[in-house]
Amino acid sequence: MPGGDTGGDTGGEGGEAVCWLERVCPGCGALREGREDAPCAACGAPPGATD
Hints:
Largest sheet: none
Helix content: under 10%
Number of strands: 0
Number of helices: 0
Shape: elongated
Mean pLDDT: 77
Strand content: under 5%
Structural class: little secondary structure
């Protein structure tokens, strides 16, 4: 095919969310799972903790 394949078509594959930054615990760096209002399962930091 003229021009070649640009690799832009992913064929409708799914994948991870673009940014999970808001799910990273600021206390320990763990990725929070489940409810957004639950404390971090790894360190117990409350939601919205800044350090």
